[in-house]
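User: These chains co-purify. Model them together.
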Amino acid sequence: MTPPPGIHFAVAPYFHIDIDWPGRLSLAAGVELTGEGPVTRPPWRPAGADELAALVLDPTQPGAREELPRCVCLFAVPAHLRAAFWDVVARGEEQGQIPADDFSAFADEVARFLAFKQMPLPVGAVFELLVSRPGQTAAPATSSGWGLINLGEEAVSVVFLSPPARDGSAPDHPPVRLQLAPGEGARIPAGLLLGSDDQEREQAEVLLLIRLPDTG
Amino acid sequence: MAPDSSPPGPLELLVLQPTPFCNINCSYCYLPDRQSTKQMSARTLEQTFAWVFASGLVREPFTLLWHAGEPLVVPRAFYETAVTLLERYNRPPVGIHHALQTNATLIDDEWCRFFIEHDVHPGVSVDGPAFLHDRHRRTRQGKGTLDRVLRGIRLLREHGVPFYVISVLTAEALLYPDELFDFYQEQQIPTVAFNVEEIEGPHTTSSLLGVEMRERFRRFFSRFMDLALAADPPLAVREFDTSARALLGPRYGPGSRTQENKPWAIVNVDCDGNFSTYSPELLGASSPRHGSFALGNVECDSLEAAIALERFQRLEDEICLGVERCRQTCPYFAFCGGGPPANKFFETGSFAATETLFCRLHKQVCLDVTLDRLEKPITAPAEPTRT
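Assistant: Joint model of the two components:
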């Protein structure tokens, strides 16, 4: 199968997530190229049925498996890993900062879990914890992400943008916003940009960004 | 085979079938008559206990397990009668570990009080989160049963009834060790036992067939044990504990047998009073060579008469041959003692067979992983992931 151009989504193999894609995906009006890179142009709207069919990979279609590396793959970390993270945070609160060894051990556990699920991290992958208060935006525009995980207690929205075309013009398909439930993560295909979102939240946004090696 | 002059038994496990009926219809069930609503009568129940305690098999503590159908579809009064009869016939008394295997969908407050009052230990059959459990454990209308199972588990917890769970592992379940671990933790399940989806009775195939399944099972069990051992408190896993005991305990040698392949260590009695020995799954089954695996009826056939049957001797000879072949050919024999006769028969049609699907996964892989974990403290730590 050859999906239409644009950004595509799928549930990662070896994960079971009952997902309501229409409730999770929305589209921006377009993209504006600024000196700081492409930014989304509101307003956001739900994706229509035809758009959803183009956005979401049908895993039952022949050849769907081969398309997965080009898809944003949704996955979920188990509750015991999230609990381990918050244990690390609790120890950090006692000590004034998150102990590096504890965070490293937690990151190792995440890596082991993803490896079991056939999503091994590249050697040297960097784990970065992004925390923002309500009203702040945590997820920065970046193109170096392997993926990210919502470790917070509230759903967060993540925006995906295609890079500008070779001639520097804006891509001809709109940015897509994906809502990540607590504990969910997304594997980002190479080249896709991760944008920021400023949806109102009541609790802190806690994202674990997993970067590719040697990138900022 | 040379005649064995030692007395048969002793009895280690008595499996009683109060009814073959089950109120649900699991896709991998081995019971051929699970639609039959027959129930063991009070008369058969008494004849069963009379037979067992007069047989000479009861020489040490044993486990009495109500199984082979859903035991809780039978009224509690039946089990109250059983308790009374046990007290009458168990003279001089030996210790009896009283257990029951249930799908938990019918557990209520009264059952919980019964379990507590009579020290009955339920094992609950549950396969994990809904996407695993409800795929196979369904009602006859095709509906999932997990909600009802969890209600039963909650009642057991609230009443303080000690229980464990048995989960059947299919090929799909092997992809989800973390999700299973989360499930057991969330449901506050302290002890879990894994059964592999076996080829038994009318269930003539398994999703676990295939050469790749050994490695997939190893990855699953290894990952699961990492999580179980790291939990606080650790989650007890039957396969790990039995493997550890096998590795650390005495070895099986020539002539030694396991509970399931040793005659009369297990006695199985169906709701009509027909009895068999060896693997419980054999009761109700038959073969062209051996005929029915039932060796008599508690109403009219003594243990001596059953032992004297030519078809029992044929059965015993063939099982014995299979164990001996296991000993000669399998490097795991010293820790295993020979595969269960039921698996050999249902997979190959012969008790003289050796390695089965059950052996490869449930025995060999579990032993390998357990040995690896037991050796871990004296090996160098793994290279940490760079972050």
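Chain B touches chain A through 20 residues (CB under 8 Å).
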